[in-house]
């Protein structure tokens, strides 16, 4: 993923993403692992490697996303395009709950993306709890 991206391009994408995963908002500085420069529309689905199709993603989100471009809204069963972190404001589709350890989908897009990308996986939730205690989370 990140290997095919130049250092300068990676830095531009990371700066645009404010050093955060576009999906779960994990901050690069607290994650302990280099974020991926991901293809919003995966290459396997015809997505380009132009900057306009690239964003920052943590390894969890990128891995769960895989080649998905849409997922079912768990409330309605309707297939919905996944959240686009470059085009859509996170705050309109997601909210923090449970002392900022849990991400809730506010819209069909948000709910489908929470489920498809497993944004509350059992490893990230306890980490968020510790980050919150340290005052590093949720991101401002
Ligand atoms: Zn993430």
Provide structural commentary.
With 140 residues, the chain is of the alpha+beta class. The protein has one domain. The protein is built from 6 helices and 6 strands, in the order ααββαββαββαα. Strands 1-2 form a two-stranded antiparallel ribbon. It has a two-stranded antiparallel ribbon with strand order 3-4. The longest helix has 10 residues. The chain is globular. The mean pLDDT is 95. It binds zinc ion. The site of zinc ion has 8 residues, from helix 3.
CA-based shape: globular
Tally of domains: 1
Task: Provide the β-strand percentage band.
Answer: 15-25%
Helix coverage percent: 25-40%
What is the chain-wise order of helices and strands? HHEEHEEHEEHH
* Count of DSSP strands: 6
What distance separates the N and C termini? 28 Å
């Amino acid at each position: 993923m990140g290997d095919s991206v130049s250092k300068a391009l990676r830095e531009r994408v990371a700066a645009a993403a404010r050093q955060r995963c576009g999906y779960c908002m994990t901050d690069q500085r607290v994650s302990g692992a280099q974020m991926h420069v991901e293809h919003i529309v995966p290459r396997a689905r015809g997505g380009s490697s132009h900057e306009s199709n690239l964003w920052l993603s943590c390894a969890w989100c990128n891995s769960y996303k895989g080649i998905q471009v849409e997922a079912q809204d768990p409330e309605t069963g309707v297939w919905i395009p996944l959240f686009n972190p470059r085009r859509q404001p996170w705050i309109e589709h997601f909210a923090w709950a449970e002392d900022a350890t849990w991400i809730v989908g506010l819209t069909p897009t948000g709910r489908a993306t929470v489920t498809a990308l497993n944004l509350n996986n059992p490893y990230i939730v306890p980490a968020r709890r510790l980050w919150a205690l340290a005052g590093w989370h949720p991101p401002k």
